[in-house]
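User: Sequence recovery, please. Input:
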C-alpha cells in the first residue's frame, strides 16, 4: 500500500519537473525574432525586390502612356487646326459672298425695335433688352436702341444702368450734327446761333432724354444731378413750362437762388397763368444768396 503511494508521489514530482522544463524552453522559443532567421530574411527580401520592380514598371508604363497621350493630343490638335484652316480657305474661294446692305440693316433694326416695344408693353424686360442690344450691335450709333435700353432699366428699377445708358446716349448725340446737343453737355441754357442740323422733333426727343435722366437721378436721390439734367432739357426747349417748372423746383431744393430766379422769370413769361408762381417766388426768397 505504502509502496504504491510512494510511487505515485514520485510520478507526480517527475511530471511537474518535465512540465517546468518544457515551459521554460517554450518561453525561450517565443522570444526568438523570426526576422533574424535566414529563411525569413530571404522571403522578406524577395518580396521587397518584387514590389520595387512592380513599382518601377508601373511608373515607366504610366510615363510612356502619358507621353503617348500628350503626343497624340498634340497631333490631333494640329490636324484639327489644319482642317479648319482648309475649310476657311475653301469658303473664301468658293463660298457665297454674304454682305448686309444698309437697307437690310435698317429693316432688321425696325423689326427689332417693334419687337422690343411689344416686349416692354408685356413687361418682358429680358426679351426687350435683348432686342435693343441686337439693335445696338447692328449700329452702335442707333439712339433708338439706347432709348429702349434706358426704358428697360427704368422699368426694372435698375437706376445706375439707366443713368449710364442715358449719359452715353447724350454723349452720342453731342457727337452728331446738333450744335444744341454739344452745348447741352456744357449745360448752357438759351443757346442761340448754333450750327445745328437737327429738326424740332429731334430736339424734342433729346429734351426728353434729359428729362429721363433727371427722373433717374431723382430716383437715385441725386437732386443736383436732376437739376443739371433739367437744365440740359432747357437747351433744346428753353420756353417749355414743364421743364422750367421742374428746373426751378430742383434749384430751390439744392439752394441755387440765382438759377431759381432766372427760371422763375422765364416761367412767368412762358406761363403767366401758372398758379404756383406766388408760392415759388416765396420759396425763392427764403434761399440765401450765393
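Assistant: Recovered sequence (290 residues):
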Amino acid at each position: 500500500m505504502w509502496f504504491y503511494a510512494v510511487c505515485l508521489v514520485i510520478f507526480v514530482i517527475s511530471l511537474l519537473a518535465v512540465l517546468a522544463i518544457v515551459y521554460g524552453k517554450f518561453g525561450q522559443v517565443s522570444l526568438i525574432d523570426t526576422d533574424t532567421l535566414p529563411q525569413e530574411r530571404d522571403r522578406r527580401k524577395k518580396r521587397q525586390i518584387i514590389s520595387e520592380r512592380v513599382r518601377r514598371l508601373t511608373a515607366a508604363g504610366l510615363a510612356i502612356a502619358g507621353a503617348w497621350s500628350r503626343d497624340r493630343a498634340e497631333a490631333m490638335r494640329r490636324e484639327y487646326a489644319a482642317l479648319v484652316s482648309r475649310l476657311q480657305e475653301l469658303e473664301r474661294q468658293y463660298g457665297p459672298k454674304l454682305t448686309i446692305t444698309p437697307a437690310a440693316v435698317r429693316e432688321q433694326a425696325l423689326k427689332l425695335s417693334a419687337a422690343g416695344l411689344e416686349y416692354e408693353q408685356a413687361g418682358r424686360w429680358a426679351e426687350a433688352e435683348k432686342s435693343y442690344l441686337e439693335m445696338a450691335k447692328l449700329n452702335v450709333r442707333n439712339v433708338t436702341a439706347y432709348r429702349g435700353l434706358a426704358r428697360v432699366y427704368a422699368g426694372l428699377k435698375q437706376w445706375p444702368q439707366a443713368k449710364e445708358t442715358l449719359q452715353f446716349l447724350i454723349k452720342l448725340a453731342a457727337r452728331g450734327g446738333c450744335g444744341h446737343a454739344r452745348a447741352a453737355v456744357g449745360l448752357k441754357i438759351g443757346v442761340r446761333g448754333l450750327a445745328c442740323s437737327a429738326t424740332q422733333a429731334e430736339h424734342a426727343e433729346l429734351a426728353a432724354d434729359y428729362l429721363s435722366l433727371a427722373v433717374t437721378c431723382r430716383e437715385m436721390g441725386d437732386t443736383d444731378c436732376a437739376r443739371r439734367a433739367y437744365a440740359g432739357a432747357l437747351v433744346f426747349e428753353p420756353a417749355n413750362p414743364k421743364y422750367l417748372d421742374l428746373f426751378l423746383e430742383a434749384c430751390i431744393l439744392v439752394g441755387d437762388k440765382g438759377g431759381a430766379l432766372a427760371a422763375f422769370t422765364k416761367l412767368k413769361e412762358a406761363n403767366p397763368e401758372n398758379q404756383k408762381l406766388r408760392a415759388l417766388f416765396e420759396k425763392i426768397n427764403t434761399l440765401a444768396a450765393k
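The chain is about 80% helix and 0% strand.
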